[in-house]
């Protein structure tokens, strides 16, 4: 068990103080859209047949404490990570080698690769790519050298549907408001105006999209243009997406539409120049040329119900719309690619980050990750994973996104025994990062949960690049850090997903 670094935090509230804080939290959240649609177990379909109700997003009552040096470290590598992943996504040869180990044992990855091959054969018509990435970290202290101080280690890098940027700006706003109205007792000196960094994720992500929209240029056929938010339906986390959408409308004057993933073939077509044309179902006489398709869907195999859904994905990929992300950018974000980069003594990072100083800073954020194949490193990993004692220090991950897919610690040996050995290489084995323990109170579905928590810091990055193919064909047009997210979960849970039902959104109080 990690030691408790901050035993005095958060302060205990008496009943009157708690009532004051909570009533303000509940009202501020709804007034500012720090909200989600309720789960069916919280509000049944019978109570809310028209789906009109919303509730406070799961949030922490207090901003969690986070070491300032770690926060600065994570932000300082954001642009290097944008550079790294845009380079990987533009290196088909390298991705092919990474994907090759998976195609026979992971149907989802195989289908994504097929989409790329089909478009490659026809020829890509859009060299521009947008990445709205999120690099996730936890605080780590080297147990063999505690004097070295805390640093961040990367949990994973997301290249598709990096969520919570919309809510993150607002949870910062909530905690700042609670501070301003004295809802935090005066004894909590740590929370003050200088210790709460603003999360600029809403303007940051919207700016990334606006830059892509602008780079696409006006419609040559004289149609009005639009950005498509490709979404799951139903979507409980809709306000998170709406905040970014409204910012894009209001600040950048960009027209946006939400298109459910299953309706791509109904509502869009690709014209003879391969422009993606969108017809809104509510206004079938109108047509818009799509400049950018922003994916908040399409990352999980459950979303592809039949060939028709794959045909829809192909339709977008072969079109001239800019994709955020393209299939290749999505594939650059697999856990496998992360493992290939992070396997100790891996030569791969240098290929993508020729600047040694930049590569060294990125390397510092890697935790050890091993393949589960038959290579030397893989054999070593298999030993560690099968031994119940050593497995306790690891997490086993398949090539999936969205939370709820990993196998943790003591469950690993049994899981492997129940899985045919031929499928083991579809996973990677990663050392668990053990952040310092601290307490907080989470407000979720109208209930308070108080106790030990674990925080995960996400740093958003926006990157727009042109990929004309070949070694020298990549040109980065925009590369900036785009705000932060802090997610906090009860320390009893291995998983951290807010949408998957494990965590809450939080903001950082830097110490
Ligand atoms: P996903 O793409 O499904 O979000 P992640 O790699 O982020 O997959 O894993 C899900 C969750 O599992 C994380 O949010 C984190 O809480 C936990 N987790 C994953 N890897 C580690 C690790 N190396 N150390 C500690 N916790 C981890
Ligand atoms: Mg994750
Ligand atoms: Mg992920």
Structure description:
It contains 17 helices and 21 strands. The chain is of the alpha+beta class and 511 residues long. The protein folds into two domains: 431 residues, no CATH class; 63 residues, Glutathione synthase lid domain (Dna Ligase, domain 1), CATH 3.30.1490. Strands 3, 5, 6, 17, 18, 19 and 20 form a seven-stranded antiparallel β-sheet that branches. Strands 7, 8, 9, 10, 11 and 12 form a six-stranded mixed β-sheet that branches. The radius of gyration is 23 Å and the shape is globular. The structure holds adenosine-5'-diphosphate and magnesium ion (MG) (2 copies). The site of adenosine-5'-diphosphate (ADP) has 18 residues, from strand 5, strand 6 and strand 14. The site of one magnesium ion has 2 residues, from loops.
As residue ranges, the low-confidence spans are none
Hetero ligands: adenosine-5'-diphosphate, magnesium ion
β content, as a range?
15-25%
User: Helix/strand-derived class?
Assistant: alpha+beta
Q: What is the average of the pLDDT values? A: 95
Distance between the termini: 22 Å
Tell me the helix content.
25-40%
Total domains: 2
What is the overall number of helices?
17
């Amino acid at each position: 068990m990690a030691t408790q670094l901050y035993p005095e935090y958060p302060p205990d509230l008496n009943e009157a103080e708690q009532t004051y804080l909570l009533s303000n939290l509940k009202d501020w959240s709804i007034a500012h859209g720090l909200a989600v649609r309720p789960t069916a177990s919280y509000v049944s379909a019978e109570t809310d047949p028209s789906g009109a109700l919303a509730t406070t997003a799961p949030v922490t009552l207090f901003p969690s404490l986070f070491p300032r040096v770690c926060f600065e470290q994570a932000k300082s590598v954001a642009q290097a990570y944008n550079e790294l992943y845009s380079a990987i996504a533009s290196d088909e040869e390298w991705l092919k080698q990474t994907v090759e180990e998976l195609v026979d044992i992971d149907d989802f990855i195989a289908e994504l690769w097929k989409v790329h091959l089909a478009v490659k054969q026809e020829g890509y018509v859009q060299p521009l790519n947008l990445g709205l990435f999120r690099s996730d970290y936890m605080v780590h202290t080297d147990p063999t050298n505690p004097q070295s101080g805390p640093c961040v280690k990367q949990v994973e890098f997301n290249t598709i549907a990096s969520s919570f940027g919309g809510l993150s700006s607002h949870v910062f706003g909530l905690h700042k408001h609670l501070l301003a109205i004295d809802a935090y007792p005066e004894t909590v000196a740590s929370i003050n105006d200088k210790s709460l960094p603003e999360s600029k994720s809403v303007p940051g992500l919207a700016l990334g999209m606006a830059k892509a929209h602008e780079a696409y240029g006006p419609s040559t056929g004289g149609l009005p243009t639009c950005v498509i938010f490709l979404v799951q339906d139903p979507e409980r986390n809709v306000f998170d997406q709406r905040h970014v959408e409204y910012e894009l409308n209001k600040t950048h004057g960009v027209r946006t539409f939400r298109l459910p993933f299953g309706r791509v073939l109904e509502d869009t077509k690709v014209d003879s120049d391969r422009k993606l044309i969108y017809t809104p179902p509510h206004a079938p006489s109108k047509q818009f040329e799509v400049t950018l398709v922003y994916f908040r869907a399409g990352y999980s195999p459950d979303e592809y119900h039949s060939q028709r859904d794959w045909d829809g994905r192909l339709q977008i990929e072969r079109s001239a719309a800019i994709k955020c992300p393209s299939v290749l950018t999505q594939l650059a974000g697999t856990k496998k690619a992360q493992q290939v980069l992070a396997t100790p003594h891996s030569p791969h990072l240098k290929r993508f980050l020729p600047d040694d100083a930049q590569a060294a800073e990125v390397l510092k954020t890697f935790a050890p990750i091993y393949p589960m194949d038959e290579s030397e490193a893989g054999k070593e990993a298999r030993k560690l994973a099968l031994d119940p004692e050593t497995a306790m220090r690891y997490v086993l991950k398949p090539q999936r996104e969205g939370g709820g897919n990993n196998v943790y610690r003591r469950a690993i040996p049994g899981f492997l025994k129940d899985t045919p050995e031929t499928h083991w290489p579809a996973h990677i084995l990663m050392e668990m990062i053990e952040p310092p323990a601290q307490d907080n109170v989470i407000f979720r579905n109208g209930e308070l949960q108080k106790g030990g928590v674990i925080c995960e810091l996400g740093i958003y990055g926006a990157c727009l690049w042109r990929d004309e193919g070949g070694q020298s064909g990549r040109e980065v047009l925009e590369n900036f850090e785009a705000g932060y997210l802090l997610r906090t979960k009860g320390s009893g849970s291995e998983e951290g997903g807010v949408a998957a039902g494990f965590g809450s959104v939080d903001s950082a109080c830097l110490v």
